[in-house]
Design brief:
Removes the 2'-phosphate from RNA via an intermediate in which the phosphate is ADP-ribosylated by NAD followed by a presumed transesterification to release the RNA and generate ADP-ribose 1''-2''-cyclic phosphate (APPR>P). May function as an ADP-ribosylase. With about 180 residues, the chain is an alpha+beta fold. The protein has helices at about 5-20, 35-45, 50-60, 105-110, 130-135, 150-155; strands at about 35, 65-70, 75, 95-100, 120-125, 140-145, 160, 165-170, 175. The model has no long low-confidence stretch (mean pLDDT about 95).
C-alpha cells in the first residue's frame, strides 16, 4: 500500500472512530470499540472501501499508534470527542511532560492554561520530539513544558493511553513554561 493511501485511511478512521461514527452508521460501544466487520461494511457503504489487510497495515504502521486492534474489534487509542470510557486507570506521570503547539497559541495558553478544546482530555507527550511533531501539524512548532509531577502532587489526575499519550482534564497556567 502506498503512503498516501495509508494516510487517507488513517484520517478516515480518526474521523469515524474518534469523532463522527454516526456519519457512516457505525456504533461504538461504551469503551469506544467498533466491530471490524461493521466498520469495513460501513466504509464500503459510504464510498470508502478498504480491506481487512489494509486496516491491519494502517494500525500496525501508524507512527502514533492511534488505533488498537483486538481480534474483531478496533478503537482509537485516545482523542475522542464522542463520549467513551477508555477504562484507563490513574497513573503517576513523570516530572515533566510536553505539549506541542504553534506560536500563535502560546500567549493564550500561558494565560489560560491547556484545555481539552472539544476532546475529553488534554493530550501530553512523554518527550520533546513527539510534542514537536504534534505542534508541527499546524505550523512552526513550539514545545511547552508541563510540570506534571508537581501537578500530580497538587492533586491533578493523569492517565496514560495505550499508545503512550498522557491525558489530564486541564493544565493550569502555573504548571506551564516555554
Amino acid at each position: 500500500m502506498d503512503e498516501r493511501r495509508a494516510v487517507r485511511i488513517s484520517k478516515y478512521l480518526a474521523k469515524h472512530l474518534r469523532h463522527r461514527p454516526e456519519r457512516i452508521g457505525l456504533t461504538l460501544d461504551h469503551a469506544g470499540w467498533a466491530d471490524v466487520g461493521e466498520l469495513l461494511a460501513a466504509c464500503a457503504a459510504h464510498g470508502f472501501p478498504l480491506t481487512r489487510a489494509e486496516l491491519e497495515h494502517v494500525v500496525a504502521v501508524n507512527d502514533k499508534q492511534r488505533y488498537v486492534l483486538d481480534g474483531d474489534r478496533i478503537r482509537a487509542a485516545q482523542g475522542h470527542s464522542v463520549q467513551v470510557d477508555l477504562g484507563l486507570s490513574p497513573a503517576s506521570p513523570p516530572d515533566l511532560l510536553y505539549h506541542g503547539t504553534v506560536g500563535r497559541s502560546v500567549a493564550a495558553i500561558l494565560r489560560g492554561g491547556l484545555l481539552p478544546m472539544g476532546r475529553h482530555a488534554v493530550h501530553l507527550s512523554p518527550d520533546r520530539e513527539t510534542a514537536r511533531r504534534v505542534g508541527a501539524r499546524r505550523g512552526e512548532p513550539v514545545v511547552l513544558v508541563v510540570e506534571a509531577g508537581r501537578m500530580a502532587a497538587d492533586g491533578h489526575e493523569f492517565r496514560v493511553s495505550e499508545n503512550g499519550v498522557w491525558l489530564t482534564e486541564r493544565v493550569p497556567p502555573e504548571y506551564l513554561r516555554e
